[in-house]
Each structure stands twice: as structure tokens, then as C-alpha cells.
Amino acid sequence: MIKKYGASVVTINLSSHSRHLEIEISDNGQGMETKELNTIFEKFYRIQNKNIHNSKGLGLGLYFVKKIIDRYSGKIVVFSQLHKGSTFKISIPYEN
């Protein structure tokens, strides 16, 4: 398996709290610098390393994820540490 961002372990946890579906996705990949976290959901945004893109892609994946979550009145937040990995937390409301 090709590891685009260096993760060897990915963990997914699902839970339900107060009429919200909670999805948490964590990895042990390369992580991101704090300054990148506000822009990773922008259309065509790709993290750069000295103006070089070392991985293929158009910078649309996280943009579409955010659009879908917004459409369902949900929220997504990301926590990351460089060289340690990232955690994405998604919360989507639902009715019984």
C-alpha cells in the first residue's frame, strides 16, 4: 500500500452524543504545522514544502469533505502535530 502522507496506522472511532454522530479519524502520519490548519479545507490548497509538492493531488479532497459536512449542518476540526500525526473530529446532527 502506498502511504501518501506517511501514516502506517489509521484509527476510526464512531459514537453518538446528544443527537450528534461523532466521527474521529486519527493517524500517525507526518502531521501538519499549526499555521496550515486554517487553510487545509480551501479549494485547491496543498501544503507546500519550499514551493515543492511531493505528492500527487489537486487539493480538493478536504475541500469536498468540508462542503459535505457543512451541507449536513455539521462541524469538522483538526488537531495535528508535525511528525506525530493528525486527528480529524467530525460532528453531524441527526434526528430520531
Describe the structure.
With 96 residues, the chain is mainly β. It is 11% helix and 33% strand. It is built from one helix and four strands. It has one helix at residues 61-71; strands at residues 10-17, 20-27, 75-81, 85-93. Strands 1-2-4-3 form a four-stranded antiparallel beta sheet, covered by helices on one side. A hairpin with a 3-residue loop joins β3 (75-81) and β4. It is globular and about 45 Å long. It starts with 9 loop residues before the first strand and ends with a strand. The model has no long low-confidence stretch (mean pLDDT 86).
Task: Record keyword descriptors for this entry.
single chain; 96 residues; mainly beta; 1 helix; 11% helix; globular
Brief characterization of the structure:
This protein has 96 residues and is mainly beta.
Radius of gyration of CA atoms, rounded to a whole number: 14 Å
Number of helices: 1
Q: What gap, in angstroms, lies between the N and C termini?
A: 39 Å
Taken in chain order, the helices and strands follow as EEHEE
Helix and strand composition category: mainly beta
What number is the mean pLDDT? 86
Tell the overall outline.
globular
- Beta-strand percent range: 25-35%
Helix content: 10-25%
Main sheet, how many strands, which sense, barrel? 4 strands, antiparallel
Cross-sheet strand order for the largest sheet: 1-2-4-3
Low-pLDDT sequence parts: none
Counted beta strands? 4
List the helices and strands and how they pair.
Layout: E1 10-17, E2 20-27, H1 61-71, E3 75-81, E4 85-93
